[in-house]
Amino acid sequence: MEWEVVIGIENHVQLTTESKIFSGSPIKFGAEANTQASPVDLALPGVLPVMNKAAVERAIRFGLAVDGKIAPQSIFARKNYFYPDLPKGYQISQFEDPVVQGGSLTFGYEKDGKFVTKTVNLTRAHLEEDAGKSLHEDYHGMSGIDLNRAGTPLLEIVSEPEIRSATEAVAYCKALHGLVMWLGVCDGNMQEGSFRCDINVSVRRKGATEFGTRCEIKNLNSFRFIEEAVHVEVRRQIELIEDGGTVVQATRLYDPDKKETRQMRSKEDAQDYRYFPDPDLPPLAISEEWISRVKAAMPELPGVMRKRFIEEYALSEYDALVLTSSKAMAVYFESVVNKAGKENAKAAANWLMGDVSSTLNRENADIATAPVKPAQLAAMLKRIADGTISNKIAKEIFSAMWEANSDDENLVDVIIDAKGLKQISDTGALEAIVNEVLAANEKSVEQYRAGKEAAINALIGQAMKASKGKANPAQLTELLKQKLAG
After folding, report:
1. Contact, 100 vs 58, CB < 8 A?
2. Span 141-166, mean pLDDT?
3. Which residues contact 375 (CB under 8 A, 6 or more apart)?
4. For residue 367, how far is the Cα from the chain centroid?
């Protein structure tokens, strides 16, 4: 492909405070319209904003996690623009002096069949207030305004334009989503707008050093839409340029039904917003002592845990990255290993990345509340390791445990006994099955003895069928080879 894609991302992260960023109004989602808007949120005459300390602490926490610089003093500014759901006629944000400056985020993804990692540098993360919401559906040609969301605390995280594909954009957003939830600074609920993505997309000829004209796709609230929107916008820009046209800088919206982006408004530059320091808010001062207190209360970070998993449990970089993609997944994994032993760590990782994850996706469930508890999965891994059950039978047991939704730590043994699933490891019993299978499959026996080694697979399959899947596969295979060689 002769074109290179250039992407920068702005993520609006709603902070997990009890109240708004400059008032004491609650921020509970789903409340009746305009019941959570105070005089400060409504911008009534004479009211003054007061900074929410909890919002600042969450910003500090994020800055420490990405190894950014926490500004000892940052300034709040007024970003001036008119929109019906912006009661002040401006948004309180940060411009020249954001609370977090720099930092980086490392993530992994599949590329050309290989697992690769990439680090994207961050420009900044700044605190700001959210706007209200325009309501169109129920007003028959008119719009309603709900100001419940006005003043909700946001941390806007801005990346450098270092992302080069839709796949990288999704991987970056997933990693950032996992991190802010890990830190407890955001609940990550994309359906409720807690984590929103604005994607800046441009294209340029390969080898070019100048950036192309960018378009911003606003308010993408799912990873699938991020991927689709980038593909659609890249194709639109390339076709436009190749047809002799020019890309116009603009803010666009993605229509997932029509699979197209459409222009919302021409894109503003910083000077269009007439930023100036907010005269009602003093500079935000953050002392080293405050930073130290926040740092002391920080959880073990994903990057640190990844390295520990690799060193302590002999996992691959890929395994460690997947297992630390969310805090709930990492906690579940360690809980399993603590019960099953380090010798079963790789098996635990395989099950979590395989059957457990696929079942969670299929059932739209969360691992933190999964019906199969860590102690139960650990018990199952022990039964695989000691030869009581095979991996194939374990899948049946896992499904039964999921359906049972029980807290009983002995559930695995209960299911094995109730269903008669104990693996056959008795040599005499296996030998009887093998003799029966060899006698009934002379053609496969002749093919194997004639040098066609793959013919043994058919015999193994028949033997497993005869044992109803209970035969110890390793013992069965070895016994078959001995009989065929004799």
Report:
1. no
2. 95
3. 335, 339, 409
4. 13
β-sheet bridge partners, residue 128: 154
pTM for the model stands at 0.85
Q: Which two tokens stand for residue 464?
A: 């497993």
- Dihedral (CA of 106, 110, 112, 116) sign: positive
Which among 442, 433, 443 is positioned nearest to 480, based on CA atoms? 433
Paired tokens of 289: 């002592």
Residue 166 three-state SS: helix
Q: Is 9 exposed, middle or buried (0-12, 13-18, 19+ CB in 10 A)?
A: buried
136, 162 contact by CB (below 8 A)? no
Query: Which has the closest alpha carbon to 122: 165, 87, 90, 155?
Result: 155
What phi, psi does 100 have (nearest 5°)?
Answer: -120, 130
Longest Cα–Cα distance of the chain, Å, equals 98
The separation between the first and the last C-alpha atoms of the chain, rounded to the nearest angstrom, is 59
Q: Interhelix angle for 473-485 vs 427-440, to 10°? A: 60
As beta bridge partners, residue 262 has 253
Write out pLDDT tens, residues 232-284: 999 999 999 999 999 999 999 999 999 999 998 776 666 788 999 999 999 99
Q: Tell me, rounded to whole angstroms, the distance of Cα 24 from its chain centroid.
A: 31
- pLDDT digit string (tens) for 122-150? 999 999 999 999 888 777 888 899 999 99
Residue 318, classified by CB atoms within 10 Å of its CB into exposed (0-12), middle (13-18) or buried (19+), is middle
Q: Amino acid letter at 264?
A: M
Instruction: Give the dihedral of Cα atoms 142, 147, 148, 152; nearest 10 deg.
Output: 130
Average pLDDT over residues 455-484: 79
For the chain, what is the radius of gyration of the CA atoms?
Answer: 29
CA pair distance 399, 83, nearest whole angstrom: 52
Q: Distance between CA 66 and CA 303 in Å, rounded?
A: 10
The residues near 298 (Cβ < 8 Å, ≥ 6 apart) are 61, 64, 65, 183
